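Now for our specimen.

. . .
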Amino acid sequence: MSIEVEKLCFSYGRREVLRDVSFTARPGELTLVLGPNGVGKSTLFRCILGLLQDWKGSIRVEGADVRTLRVRELARRVAYIPQSHYPTFNYSAFDMVLMGTTRRTSPFVSPGKKEREAAMEAMEAAGAAYLRDRSYHRLSGGEQQLVLIARALAQDTRVLLMDEPAANLDYGNQLRLMEQVRALAERGYLILLNSHNPQHALDYAHRVLAIRDGRTRAFGKPGEVLTPELIRELYGVEVDFLRLEGRCLLSPVRGGAR
């Protein structure tokens, strides 16, 4: 159960977005993808999910070439958690999660007892069981993200792709969400997560994939590949790395942005 990407290249027309991106994400690990805006992080996800077709290179999920998988087959292997989701109708949190079970059934069959039990188990696994009967529209951003994670778990796959799930959350909800994501990885899930926050990589990730100008600039353990030089290259800012009680903290250097 892995995601193997080798020499991935993709262009929107004449604009080359991904250039020779290679990495392997493994089960039981949170791999965090870092890079500035526009470097191809979301495009990478769309290629893995089969939403983009005209890429070059190789993408294999659980040993299978993504190009050979139909939509329902890929849904059995990979679940996607978007940055945000606003359904047209005012569903309950439980009904939102129940939608994740549809890949288990025929499109013309309503979810039954088995699917409802699976949805409740997913909410418990994501720490969202207490939200069961609440309106999804009235949840906070952090609570909505927990519901979306539960919906992905209800899809019954061990591979999760998360596209900047903490981007619109306040500080407290970011920490609570990232703690939950790390816990899922430690339970054996393979998680690939886009983020703009390198501190999240230092605090929660097992591996870091850094992308700049569409290329892999670094891949490995956060403590080994994240350096002040790499942060400068990715974001154009100067930082110091501070060691405090076993943690590594990023401290921006005043006047160091360029």
